[in-house]
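User: Predict structure, ligand adenosine-5'-diphosphate.
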Amino acid sequence: MGKTYVIAFDQGTTSTRTIVFDTQGAIVSICQKELKQHYPQSGWVEHDPLEIYNDQLETFTKAVSESGINPEDIAAIGITNQRETTVVWDRETGEPIYKAIVWLDKRTTEICERLENQGLSRYIKKNTGLVIDSYFSGTKLKWVLDNVEGAQEKAEAGQLMFGTVDSWLIYKFTNGEKHVTDHTNASRTLIYNIKKLDWDKRLLDALNIPSSILPKVQSSSSDFGTIDYKGTKIPIYGVAGDQQASLFGQGGFEAGIGKSTYGTGCFILLNTGEKHVKSKKGLLTTLTCSLDNEAINYALEGSIFAGGASIQWLRDRMKVIDSASETEAICNSIPALKNVYVVPAFAGLGAPYWDGKARGSVYGMTLDTGREHLIKATVNALAYQTKDVIGAMEKDYGENITTLKVDGGATANNYLMQFQSDLLNVDVDRPKMIEVTAFGAALLAGIKAGVWTKNNISEIRDVDTVFSPKMDKKTRKKNYKGWKKAIKRTKRN
Ligand code: ADP
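Assistant: Predicted complex:
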């Protein structure tokens, strides 16, 4: 008997999980722990790196023992992680010198301004695919070096190590043997050159970061070291940041395939193949999961701030629904909306408009506009915003997307999925597998272990429903024109 199980570590912003998959891609067991959030100051968000490691170890041990499988039958482990979150630790003791600074943390705004004042915006966009923003790891690392006593000197003496959460977990699980990361995580640091596929000397100099602190960057599906689990050696063969892992888990490794994750926010990625597309529309360029001996692929990325969050707003603030799941039946209970639009710019408008001052608005109400209309218009807004981002991607990329693969909590809403397909005029493909992100990490590991090949993923990834466009062209155009008008009225700059 060959090895028959592949494990995914899924280290997210709010929880840490371990999932055991069998070779059919079915979940054998799953174990999860909530992760404590620390908010030491306004705009600051931290995690405890040791808690992250301990939780991962605990969920791993539990998931394996609950599944009843023999550890010897585990082919490999894949890791997917919250991206950009930054950990710095001591090379000698292995102890973190500061808490993990989470991607959401805004403390480095000033460092970002300095980079802008040095005239680095264009260089950064061109070489890292990113925009100067506190979101990415580079300025967080700089902050630690500047603010933890003695850190800069220690870093210069080669005594510190930096990593995103994947690197940190691998370091701990391999007993300090490996200091590595993968292309997807490196591409979110602001100091990695996605054209040269190497750390960027000019940006390291600008931030005064010595290169000895950096992990080695490898293909997402490659050998990241070995975990000793109660005497059994299990290789780590896969690593990817969460959004890229989800694109991979959806089978999105060909140019033209897009994926959208409909969670609290929505994360949209379009694989542009070997073409490194620089966005003129305010999108990011990033690396997709890489396989040994295969050319690197690029993706355009855009996110929507208020996705499922606006459904939560209907429930918690407007109090017009008791649960998100009610919205589908309500949307189906009234005819298609003609003129009512909700623009959920609660936190401004993101890609492709980038207007931080815009605020949420409702348009086109008449005396017969009621609760159902408000709800339906809010659900529709998820699809309209996704179309805005995908439209921008198509313009940048120069071609239309072929399919949209979807995942995340709000994809349970069949009305929304159909409306999305209608608006985009492409098939929307929802898989049976809900744990797409973890599955993506498992796939990367399973491919390296020889359990799966890239080509048989379509057999493992069972389709639940494909929503095909039903709306006529005229209606589609008219609806979208109305939305654009609502956006125009919402914009402040
Ligand atoms: P996250 O990973 O960001 O926590 P999830 O993928 O778990 O998000 O999705 C939860 C989000 O999906 C919530 O914001 C919720 O309002 C929304 N949601 C869940 N079910 C539905 C539904 N049937 N229709 C619309 N939105 C939904």
